[in-house]
Specification:
Number of helices: 11
Shape: globular
Helix content: over 70%
Radius of gyration: 21 Å
Low-confidence stretches: none
Length: 261
């Protein structure tokens, strides 16, 4: 029963993106900008290699594919600073606005199931957004010489999926607090920006606060993983943020359920 309810919520949330013109605008914007940077970064790397080759300064061993992947995914995560809050802002705020959140709060389906279902639904749409990028990369990397290390590519995209899911989870919690999608977007953007610059803050505060803040950095772990460095602490950090977002969302809805009882 729990699994059936979960899948029903996932399906409803996922399909809702394909009935919204705004979702198509987001997709078009993302594909246009990411496609531009994909071509620009690739072209710049090719020009740099040609220049080094002509000047006789080309190293014997150079991993162009890894350099491209690191640069491109660095741009993509910057785009997500704007994109991901737009995906998560309506997860609960629209339910509040339509008055259907009270129905969710008083339904027999647990808050955890609803939160997990909504998160999986938006992550599913996020994966759809990523499909064209994977196709472009497959075409580009198929011509790489020497061949690309598949493990590095998979690890890089795993990190992208994990950090995006973590941000969407936190954005879902913020969306559960307000009936304004715009406010949810702004607050989620501010939160992501804080997590982005947390390393800079850590460098300018005293111990033990510096160490604590540095260990909270999502983007530091992300940067390590796209370079092929996998640390258990990074996986723990990502899953912790995802869990915290789901937990806080469930508690937020439980508070609403308590108010209505």
């Amino acid at each position: 029963m729990i699994l059936a309810n979960l899948m029903a919520i996932v399906r409803k949330e996922f399909q809702s993106y394909f009935t919204s013109p705004f979702a198509y605008i987001i997709a078009a914007f993302f594909w246009l900008i990411s496609g531009f940077f994909f071509g620009a970064i690739l072209d710049q790397l090719i020009q740099d290699i040609s220049f080094l080759e002509q000047s006789g300064q080309l190293p014997e061993s150079i991993d162009i594919a890894s350099q491209f992947l690191e640069a491109f995914l660095g741009v993509i995560i910057s785009l997500f600073l704007v994109l991901l809050p737009a995906l998560s802002m309506g997860l609960y705020s629209e339910e509040r606005k339509r008055g259907t959140l009270e129905l969710l709060a008083t339904s027999p389906v647990t808050n955890w199931v609803v939160a997990c279902g909504k998160l999986l639904g938006v992550v599913g749409f996020f994966i759809v957004l990523m499909v064209p990028l994977w196709i472009w990369e497959t075409i580009a990397f198929s011509a790489a010489d020497p061949p690309v290390n598949i493990q590095i590519i998979l690890l890089a995209h795993l990190s992208l999926l994990l950090i995006s899911t973590a941000i969407l989870s936190l954005g879902m919690f913020i969306s559960s607090l307000t009936d304004s999608s715009i406010l949810a977007y702004i607050l989620t953007f501010i939160l992501i920006l804080f997590l982005w610059i947390i390393d800079l803050i850590a460098n300018n505060v005293i111990e033990p606060f510096s160490s604590i803040l540095s260990h909270l950095s999502l983007f530091d772990s992300y940067s390590d993983m796209i370079r092929g460095v996998l640390e258990p602490s990074s996986l723990i950090l990502f899953t912790s943020y995802i869990f915290i977002g789901i937990f806080l969302t469930a508690q937020s809805i439980e508070a609403l359920r308590f108010q209505r009882s």
